[in-house]
């Protein structure tokens, strides 16, 4: 893929950089842009097509940067706007596109708009938010009983007695997307980043923007008052017009958590978003029947709207998949975090290796969350007093375990991440999972990812079709001469005849494929 390719998002390998935890160059224990620039070679060697950068804007960090105080600048902890511009340029020079993360549902309570709204009831900014009187005689009951996305309540009372809405923490007041100024501001923010050369926008909490102004309660037989309201599509049609005005090569990628695939696909109609994260696949159990159904469901839903599928195994919000796949229950949902349940890391790693080949050969784009290419697992041993995630206080589960800084070199923490104490502790066992330890080791996760991504670049993957190799085997072809086979059964299976192995996720047993192992095959007849 070259930077000239149009529609690059359709089959790109996109790497999520979580800037706090990638690499720290200024020695304060927190990752930064200078660190990313210094370690850009890792991403070039890995062969990724694009970086998605989690928020790097000025923020009080009530939600690790998803509480943005200024969308047109960079938080001093990460660096400066000039450094961000330099990174965009250097990534492009290395053939890597840049996607930035925009958070439209809410802003930080330290954003000038919210401060103005709090300071004066008559301020025009007041209408940019959801201020409402309380219920009850003294107005001291919340306007609704809505449960927040992190659990807990969704309204906070201000000094003047009114309440404001926040679907996440009180430091993240929700914006009123019925207001034209809010819409205009975000279109201008998109242009700000497109003008700086970014190739795509990741849209945070994309389905939540609109709220029913009547504020009904969430009831089974009511339309949902804040999730997936029809009007949200008009917002993204307008965003699409902005993106398209830059020549048709800038992508909008939505974070849309939606159990109903048809509703999900609505976001991907030709005049809306270009792609959205496939959380159905992320949450799916390591189970051949369920995985196959998930792949079918995904491909059908995307085909209906002409959009490319995406394949996502992990991100900064969910338990890392080495850990998930090493548990008895391999599904994921926010209500099923299973903290502290037994984990077989060897099994989880073996499955994660197979999942790498699976997710890199299904039709569409593949997302890699930083550290996944190193086979990192969830750090489940962070002492609670070190937790920084606000979800911990509200939902009893912390996302910090998947946000631990990357191990680069050496035998001991902080493994070259920083010269100081890293903002979250790294497991000592990661000494075998550093970039340095894995480089050149043909059996390492890192070399598996490098080989798979390199092969993917030279393969001309064609039409997808299932290959029937037994009930517990997930196998498919991409055209006549390429096949991926994942053995999800408990016993070795025979590989098809007339093939040669291009890449295997683990050692083969003669000409048989062991359990929890995947291969890419060249079919010869
Ligand atoms: C998204 C982000 C998550 C954040 C939330 C609120 O789900 O991925 O990290 O906490 O939105 O912005």
Topology record:
Elements: E1 13-17, H1 33-38, H2 40-46, E2 50-53, H3 81-93, E3 97-102, H4 112-119, E4 131-132, E5 155-157, E6 163-165, H5 180-195, E7 200-203, H6 232-244, E8 251-254, H7 261-266, E9 275-276, H8 279-283, H9 288-305, E10 310-312, H10 321-324, H11 345-359, E11 365-369, H12 390-395, H13 435-438, H14 445-458, E12 464-466, E13 473-478, E14 482-487, E15 493-494, E16 499-504, E17 512-513, E18 517-523
Parallel strand pairs: 1-2, 1-11, 2-3, 3-7, 7-8, 8-9, 10-11
Antiparallel strand pairs: 4-6, 5-6, 12-13, 13-14, 14-18, 15-17, 16-18
The protein binds alpha-D-glucopyranose.
Task: Give your account of this protein's structure.
- This protein has 525 residues and is α/β, with parallel strands linked by helices.
- It has 14 helices and 18 strands.
- The protein is globular.
- 26% of the residues lie in helices and 14% in strands.
- The strands form four sheets. It has an eight-stranded parallel sheet. Strands 12-13-14-18-16 form a five-stranded antiparallel sheet. It has a three-stranded antiparallel sheet with strand order 4-6-5, with no helix packed on it.
- It binds alpha-D-glucopyranose.
- Alpha-D-glucopyranose is lined by residues 63, 66, 103, 168, 204-205, 255, 316-317.
- Residues 16-403 form the Glycosyl hydrolase family 13 catalytic domain.
- Keywords: Hydrolase.
């Amino acid at each position: 893929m070259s930077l000239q390719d149009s529609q690059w998002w359709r089959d790109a390998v996109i790497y999520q950089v979580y800037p706090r935890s990638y690499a720290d160059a200024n020695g304060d224990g927190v990752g930064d842009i200078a660190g990313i620039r210094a370690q850009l070679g890792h991403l070039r060697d890995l062969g990724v097509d694009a970086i998605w950068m989690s928020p790097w804007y000025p923020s009080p960090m009530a939600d690790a940067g998803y509480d943005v105080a200024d969308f047109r600048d960079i938080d001093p902890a990460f660096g400066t706007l000039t450094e961000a511009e330099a990174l965009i340029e250097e990534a492009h020079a290395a053939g890597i596109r840049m996607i930035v993360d925009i958070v439209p549902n809410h802003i930080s309570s330290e954003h000038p708009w919210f401060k103005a709204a709090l300071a004066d009831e008559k301020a025009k900014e007041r209408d940019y938010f959801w201020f409402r009187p309380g219920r009850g005689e003294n107005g001291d009951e919340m306007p609704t009983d809505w449960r927040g996305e992190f659990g807990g309540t969704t309204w906070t009372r201000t000094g003047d007695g009114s309440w404001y809405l926040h679907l996440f923490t009180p430091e993240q007041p929700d914006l009123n997307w019925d207001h034209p100024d809010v819409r205009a501001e975000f279109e201008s923010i998109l242009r700000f980043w497109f003008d700086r050369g970014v190739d795509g926008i990741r849209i945070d909490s994309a389905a939540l923007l609109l709220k029913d102004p009547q504020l009904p309660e969430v009831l089974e037989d009511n339309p949902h008052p804040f999730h997936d309201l029809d009007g949200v599509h008009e917002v993204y049609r307008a965003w699409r017009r902005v993106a398209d005005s830059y020549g048709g090569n800038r992508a909008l990628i939505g974070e849309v958590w939606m159990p109903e695939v048809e509703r999900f696909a609505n976001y991907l109609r030709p005049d809306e978003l270009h792609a959205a994260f496939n959380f159905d696949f992320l949450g799916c159990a390591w189970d051949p029947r369920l995985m196959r159904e998930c792949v079918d469901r995904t491909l059908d839903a995307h085909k209906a709207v002409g959009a490319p599928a995406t394949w996502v195994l992990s991100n900064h919000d969910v338990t890392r998949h080495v850990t998930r796949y090493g548990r008895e229950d391999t599904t994921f949902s926010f209500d099923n975090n299973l903290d502290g349940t037994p984990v077989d890391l060897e099994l989880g790693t073996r499955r994660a290796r197979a999942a790498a080949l699976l997710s890199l050969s299904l039709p569409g784009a593949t997302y890699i969350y930083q550290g996944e290419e190193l086979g990192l697992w969830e750090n489940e041993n962070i002492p609670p007093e070190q937790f920084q995630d606000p979800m911990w206080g509200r939902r009893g589960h912390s996302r910090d375990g998947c946000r631990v800084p990357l191990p680069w070199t050496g035998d001991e923490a902080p493994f070259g991440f920083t010269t100081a104490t890293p903002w979250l502790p790294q497991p000592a066992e990661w000494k075998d999972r550093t970039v340095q330890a894995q480089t050149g080791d043909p059996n390492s996760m890192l070399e598996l990812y490098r080989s798979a991504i390199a092969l993917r670049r030279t393969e001309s993957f064609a039409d997808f079709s299932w290959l029937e190799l037994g009930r517990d085997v997930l196998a498919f072809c991409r055209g006549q001469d390429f096949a991926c086979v994942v053995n999800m059964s408990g016993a070795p299976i025979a590989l098809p005849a007339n093939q040669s192995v291009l890449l295997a996720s683990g050692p083969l047993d003669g000409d048989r494929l062991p359990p929890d192992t995947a291969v890419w095959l060249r079919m010869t007849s």
